[in-house]
Amino acid sequence: MTISLSDAGKRYNREWIFRRINYSFTSGNAYAITGTNGSGKSTLLQVISGALMPNEGKIEYNLNGKAVAPENMYKHVALCAPYLDLVEEMTLSEFLDFHQQFKPLLKGLGSKDVIGLLGLEAATDRQIRFFSSGMKQRVKLAQCLLSDSEIILLDEPCTNLDEAGIALYHQLVKNYTSEKIVVVSSNDKTEYLFYGKHFEARRV
Q1: pTM for the complete prediction?
Q2: Which residues pair with 67 in a beta bridge?
Q3: Candidates 2.60.40.1590, 1.10.1760.20, 3.30.450.20, 3.40.50.300; correct CATH number of 2-200?
Q4: Which of 51, 120, 134, 140 is deepest in the core (most CB within 10 A)?
Q5: Where are the domains of the chain?
Q6: Are residues 105 and 114 in contact, defined by beta-carbon separation less than 8 angstroms?
């Protein structure tokens, strides 16, 4: 998979969030988008995902030599972000089973395997609304990092995680995303310390 931005810019009303971005993201690489608060990191992440289209320039997606239309990118993208919620009325096992109807897990993994990787066996049949904020974040990360998707997008992925949760995050990235495009948006080096490529967002 390759994602290419050419002179891409995004604005809301008359205010430009970013402009003239030229950059390519390719499979097997991990990237960090950094920048000050309000610099457009999250907006850029949503443009990369295909959820938002640039107001100028273009973004192109290519999978195995074939172009992918932006409206079909949801099939290839998994996103973890603070503004995305879990279905809290479901139990953990119900939620993971439900999620797989829309975004399959990696081959060989089932809901029980994911719960084991998260260390949440005792919470299998508990409604997510009773989870701590850290437990909820672990579930968000699992549904993203362990999905059968070519592109993994992470917006402040260590939000609400303790030391053990951060270690789990790093382990999941290391073990399950080496062949994917991974992009993290953050100002916390803990979240992107292992990332090889770095892009700094700047408000124009």
Answers
A1: 0.91
A2: 62
A3: 3.40.50.300
A4: 140
A5: 2-200
A6: yes
